[in-house]
Design brief:
The structure is a homodimer.
Chain A lengths: L4 H8 L3 H8 L7 H13 L6 H8 L4 E6 L5 H16 L3 E6 L4 H13 L4 E4 L9 H9 L3 E4 L8 E5 L1 H14 L5 E4 L6 H16 L9 E2 L5 H13 L6 E4 L2 H13 L9 E6 L9 E4 L2 H17 L8 E4 L2 E3 L8
Helix pairs in contact in A: 1-2, 5-12, 8-9, 10-11
Chain B binds a DNA duplex (16 and 16 nucleotides) through α2 and α4.
DNA sequence: TTGTAAGCGTTATCAG
DNA sequence: CTGATAACGCTTACAA
């Protein structure tokens, strides 16, 4: 069905190794043979079987990418970055989503290992979860780079400074005169959420401000979660004056709820997010995160590691987060 | 580095074929051997080399997905759908983006064919472009399904009824009393755009309404394109009263421009989009498109075709588009 | 400059 | 019930 190198060998009367050599641009073939091979290959639409090639060469020119949800702007920008540099270097990428489910994460990684990817980029669940599968990778000496880090695990990482981001928004809110501030956190399995929240609490504590526990929400992960929380807030008589959301998507959900109820942001509630997603046309004060660049860095780091045959020591890249003040926070 | 079946063979003292048989749940092995194999395999963390497996079995359990831009909600929802169904059936998916570039499209498909995917899902450029690479697939008898259709090419397809969508919005606008209506089209390579625009023109024509050519824009593909067009519109003294945009992302760009200029939608301009993306918290009148479902249908159709060994005749699935009236259109 | 042969990790076939 | 052996399509010594 698919033409092979031995087919070409028979057709041209040349040996398989000759065909292979020419096709791989090796030196030392007469122009005549070279032409003959190239021509008949083109004529019959020969496409080398990379999979057979991978068997001998130990390289599949494939990398795996495991993210949480392709539908989330944060992850699809990372994906785009990975994609771009992978393609530049001739790699194809397997895309897998864990959907924030640990079992799925383990399975998908396993599947990609089985398919003998040359390396893996993983955005793992980082809290309240076992890392056995990641350690297994390390033991196998399969190159991989993590988005985020696992304490005590020495490997390449790309990270964002979430603590700083959390601190920046909180201080901004404080400066604007807010003292009754709520926080909507993401999933418990997210380390970014843990760090942002820690920064939030620490910063408030440093200013001797305490938060009412009823202003703290958890486990939000979608626009509809944000929407539901927005409605809870609307129903409270002593609402906070400001709300820090784990990401822009959630923030948009909250804003939508207020909008639907005829309330205004920031007049009735100041709202902030994280990610600075382009689609949020609402002038949302947020913390920008260089996701596209991080994706590129992720892929570049992995490819470097694959080439170097894992000699050099681990690389750790940290991207800064930066507050983007816009109009969703009111000066009190 | 990676443990193989022959390693297991040596360790257990059993033959390779025995190991292979047990691992693949074949009948006819004593419970004793079975246990022995399974146990040592687990002990040493054996992961079958799918790539070697693929060499003999002719199946790689991998499918390829080629889209235009993962960052666009339309495509990432399709991707999510494909992903889900693929994972359910034990397939891993290669994700490639053409970035709306024909050369890239050809190359990426070529790469995936080289990696011997079992089948391909392609969202190809459909206008002003050659289809040689698609015909080559057909000749190779490699299963594939298209998002959209190519006239004269008999293959599985999943489509949206873009003409109907275009007609629905246009009629809606007419009903609301608009007669000076503009249109922002997507790229020339998009058939969806061609169809939506044709419906737009036909519908206006049927109502004996003509559009001013200066109200027609082309080649928009991003929020910033929409933004720029919004600004052009703002600068016009005789603006249209309504604007049909190729998709929600572009529409959001237009709205953003108006917002920034202190103008209001729909008071100063009625705007509509396509896709009904969740993130558009602005109450945008749009045409909803079941992208997630389409993604699932795409994957299911492909997998069916792979199993059936391409006997049955081509399947064509058409998803309807549906107008979702919201508040971005003003009653005149 | 070209050809032969072995090997990559599996599965399949066919004896034992 | 188990074990050799060939085959999948390619690369790579090594030989001619």
């Amino acid at each position: 069905m698919n033409i092979t190198i031995s087919d070409l060998s028979k057709m041209t009367g040349l040996a398989k190794s000759t065909i292979s050599g020419v096709l791989n641009n090796k030196e030392g073939f007469s122009e005549k043979t070279r032409q003959k091979v190239l021509q008949t290959a083109a004529q019959y639409g020969y496409v080398p079987n990379e999979i057979a090639r991978g068997l001998t060469s130990r390289f599949t020119k494939t990398i795996g990418l495991l993210i949480k949800d392709i539908t989330n702007p944060f992850y699809n920008h990372i994906t785009k970055g990975v994609q771009e540099v992978a393609a530049e270097h001739g790699y194809t990428v397997f895309l897998c989503s864990s959907g924030e489910d640990h079992k799925m994460e383990v399975e998908q990684i396993q599947a990609m290992v089985g398919k003998r990817v040359d390396g893996l980029i993983i955005a793992p669940l980082l809290e309240e979860v076992s890392f056995d599968h990641i350690y297994a990778l390390k033991r196998k000496k399969l190159p991989f780079v993590l988005l985020g880090n696992i304490p005590g695990l020495d490997c390449d990482t790309v990270e964002f400074d979430d603590y700083s981001g959390g601190k920046q928004v909180t201080e901004h809110l404080l400066q604007k005169g807010h003292t009754r501030i709520g926080f909507v956190n993401g999933l418990n399995t997210s380390k970014a959420g843990k760090l942002r929240f820690a920064a939030f609490q620490d910063t408030l504590f440093a200013h001797s401000i305490t938060t009412d526990p009823k202003y703290i929400f958890k486990e939000a992960k979608s626009l509809s979660d944000g929407y539901a929380i927005g409605n809870q807030l609307i129903a409270m008589e002593d609402r906070p004056t400001a709300l820090v959301c784990f990401d822009d998507v959630i923030a948009m959900g909250v804003i939508k709820a207020f909008d639907n109820a005829g309330l205004k942001v920031p007049d009735n509630l100041s709202v902030t997010g994280f990610d600075d997603i382009e689609l949020a046309i609402f002038p949302l004060t947020t913390v920008s995160i260089p996701t596209l660049e991080a994706g590129k860095a992720l892929a570049q780091t992995l490819i470097d590691r694959i080439m170097q045959e894992r000699v050099s020591k681990s690389k750790h890249i940290v991207f800064e987060q930066k507050l983007i003040p816009r109009a969703s926070v009111k000066q009190l």
